[in-house]
Amino acid sequence: MNLAWREIRRQKLRFLATAVGLGLLFAVVLAMGGIYKGMVEDATLLIDSLGADFWIVQRDTHGPFAERSVIPISVERRARSLPGVEWARSFSTITVEREVGDRNVRLSLVSLSWPDDRGAWLPLREGRALNAAHREIVVDASLGLELGSEVPLGDEHYRVVGVTSGMVGSGGDGLAFLTLSDLLRVSSYMPPEARRLARAAAGGNSASSGGVQVSAVLVRMKDGADRERAAEQLAGWSDVSAWPTSTQQSFVLLGLVDKARRQIGLFRVILVIVSSIVVSQIVYNMTTAKTREIALLKLMGARTRVIVGMILQQSLLLSALAYLAALGTGALVFPIFPRRVVVGPEEMLTAGLLLAAIGLFSSLAAIYRALRTSPMTILAG
Amino acid sequence: MEAIRGVDLHKTYGSGNTEVRALRGVSIQVDRGELVALLGPSGSGKSTLLTALGLLNLPDRGELALAGEVVVSGGRALRDLAAVRRSKLGFVFQKSNLIPFLTALENVRLGLEINDHGAAEAKRRAAELLAYLGMQDRLQNYPEQLSGGQQQRVAIARALAVDPPVLLADEPTAALDGSRSRDVIGLFRKVAHERGTAVIVVTHDHRLLDAFDTLYEMEDGLLRRLPNGAEANRR
Q: What is the pTM of this model?
């Protein structure tokens, strides 16, 4: 006879409510991990997607995702001359906020190197990649812009021709892709009056100075090309710095995500401790409420394993139900979080094992209490 | 045939000024099929004797034997007492102490399953026992759905589940009214005489003493046998 189940059967709702409450608490633990993983994925998503082997950036900087980086567009041509280069593309990114309809939309604009790169690699949900060099834009679905809608950038409107899914930047803003020339136009745009004043301040000369500048130049090597030799050659360019893609990713993770990782990690530890204490308290109270029954079982000569089994089974069942409640809550709630919450099979398994461990650990105090219960307790009236 | 025997049992609580000698060389023997009442005022040592006989609170000195086998000697257990309790002793208390989340049938089954009876056999025997005690219509009722007398019947069925040679009852009628008390003592008598169980009942209720085969009285840690039920009633 399974005593644990029979007791739960008699107070199903209370047990279920306890499990759901615990599940909600653990959903927060899952969310914390998912938010961190989402941040890491978001932060490295664009770097991974662009498929470069090297990032050439402003000398002694860590690149456009870590800090301001400005290099002449001519570096692209120089990079193409390296032996074994498949392609070299200029890259720029800026973040802008615009009123679209009655909404304020924050977009991370990313350049595509037209005409070589029209965004065919983008994970499109609807529409298409760029077909024209000018006034077309592909946006991420998280921005909430519909296909065919127009986004005001600079003094022009850009038509949304494609909608991607899951393309967000390290800050969690949806990405929007347009040609490099359009992006440079947007980034250098000044209203006519401001341009006039700037020209006047410069003594009648043009307000712009120098040649065209971009954030970075991306270099992709051919298959079988000698990457180490290319890296050595790039290291010899004194005006810029060149980082392998893996280093570029590390800079992003160290710069943007590391503190958040530690903060979230600590928060998770605290939550796990709180969950453990809560489960312990619940299991202990459940056991305390059964002191007479446990004393009776001992009086009847029940083996220790019968009593320990009852407590352990209830604790583990509570953990299992809490786990399911946490997963259910996650499935319902995580998609509406403003930032991506990535909870994969690995996180689910880890959370399951963690809850099982909490269940086991939490029942120790209750088992100790049960084993110390004297069968004489039953005679106390 | 001897069911339980205690010889020269001593038990002392505390020491110095607070010393209480609860048992002072008590000897008792109860045979199978014998219904025994244990009388005495509060603090006389009845409960101490009952818990000693129930292997819950070992005497400091003396010897205890169950079904002819010595299980405690010189204040030391000679056997696994939980195992002895499991198979050779049944307990009934003032409160029925039924497990609230088990039905009447399950409460009785529990005693059998603790003794390694298979689920099907335990269920059959539990149902038989409850029917024997007139509870065949209440098998699926939870304790809260039963009257006090019915709860005690289930408790007796549970205590008898493994057919122990000895049944110990600590004031089992204290919470019941007169007619229900008579019913319960009647059941003990039935169990003792029909099943051959030695039943020892601690009671304060002198109205029911006629039903018992043997009467003992505890006073200041000493046990004394009274002549018979009728004489005790006169006292």
A: 0.71
